[in-house]
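Input/output pair, single chain:
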Amino acid sequence: LVGAYFYLLANNQLPTAKALDSFAGGHHLPRWALILLVFCTGTVTLSLEVTLVRIINLSVGSAYFVFPIVLGVFVFGLALGSLTLNTRKQGPYSIVAFLAFLFFAVSIVYLTIPYWPYWLHNVRASLTDVNSNYYVYILLIIAFCLVLFLPFLWALGRLLPLAYTA
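Output:
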């Protein structure tokens, strides 16, 4: 329903479409390319979220807290990216620049995946002596996810609003 709403909004078939015309981002990409971009980045985002939940689960052991942590980091990163976007200051190549940054950030995450179990095991082993360190361990996993995932989530959070304002 949300996709249909924005499709109708993009085709100026809804009365609120005129209000969005003042936010033109300045790119000159065809409408079909922007719709394809939004579809592909959304699909990649959801696939990446599920994949990263599985990989973190493999790294820390199957735990109930991994899914909410990764989901929370994803929502936070996407929101942060969209909230820090000023569409009036974006140039015609801003979508291409964010895609290049996104590729670079996801490449860093991909290249570090083999080391995650070792890093997280060392954190867990260093905190096993005291039972109250469990909450510290959870906070360190949240920090780990924020450091690794926030750069590409920030870029993903900026791409959707940029595509809608084009």
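The longest helix spans residues 134-164. The mean pLDDT is 80.
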